[in-house]
Design a protein that fits this description.
The chain has 199 residues and is an alpha+beta fold. The protein is built from eleven helices and five strands. It folds into three domains: 4-63, Nucleic acid-binding proteins (OB fold (Dihydrolipoamide Acetyltransferase, E2P)), CATH 2.40.50; 66-138, DNA polymerase, domain 1 (Orthogonal Bundle), CATH 1.10.150; 150-197, Helicase, Ruva Protein, domain 3, CATH 1.10.8. 47% of the residues lie in helices and 19% in strands. α4 (95-104) packs across α6 (118-132), α9 packs across α11 (186-197) and α10 crosses α11.
Length: 199
């Protein structure tokens, strides 16, 4: 079992990246969120992987954080949600926002993902809502590399823009800012905001 691959990003496709390690290129299917993140780490990237084995196909799927990989694994436990659909969901909804969508039962947001109708969205929420409420089921947000994922600035507007870049609305961002100590460093404000948003 391959836990992770560390190497150079040799190529970026529409739904995959090629990571070169020891002169071998590994084609790894992933989400748009991870592709965006890895574009900034081309020389020394780490991709946490899961090998998917089927009768007619063997492929590697991977993500730039263990948390996103765990969310991917959870999605695949739901009947009717295979590898392709799970990747489609994670490409449409950043995994941090997806956790919040599942917790609050936001069917409408989930149906925006390709191949997800209302019934499937309801089933996903029903089966995963309790699981994502348990932090150890998908990991906490400590392994998110905020410096690389978010352009951190020096005031509240920068925090709002950072949250918007992760898929949250400006209204959500402004509301959660009102619950945070604004004297904290920007990085800490973002972390606390995300923890409040996924509760």
């Amino acid at each position: 079992m391959i836990d992770y691959i560390k190497g150079k990003i040799n190529y970026v496709g529409e739904d995959y990246v090629v990571v070169e390690n020891n002169y071998i290129g590994y084609k790894i299917y992933t989400s748009a969120y991870t592709i965006s993140d890895l574009n900034g780490k081309r020389e020394d990237a780490i991709v946490y992987t899961q090998m998917i084995v089927r009768e007619d196909d063997i492929r590697l799927c991977g993500f730039s954080s263990r948390a996103e990989l765990k969310v991917f694994d959870l999605l695949r436990t739901v009947k009717g949600v295979g590898t392709k659909v799970a990747l489609g969901i994670l490409s449409s909804i950043p995994y941090i926002q997806l956790i919040n969508v599942l917790m609050v039962g936001d069917v409408t947001s989930l149906t925006r993902a390709p191949g997800i109708g209302k019934k499937t969205a309801q089933r996903i929420i029903l089966e995963l809502k309790d699981k994502v409420n348990k932090a150890d089921e998908f990991g906490n947000l400590e392994d998110v590399d905020f410096d690389n994922k978010i352009n951190i600035g020096s005031d509240n507007d920068e925090v709002i823009e950072a949250l918007v870049s992760l898929g949250y609305s400006r209204i959500e961002a402004k509301k959660v800012l009102g619950k945070i100590d604004n004297s904290l460093p920007i990085e800490e404000m973002i972390k606390k905001a995300l923890k409040l948003l996924v509760k």
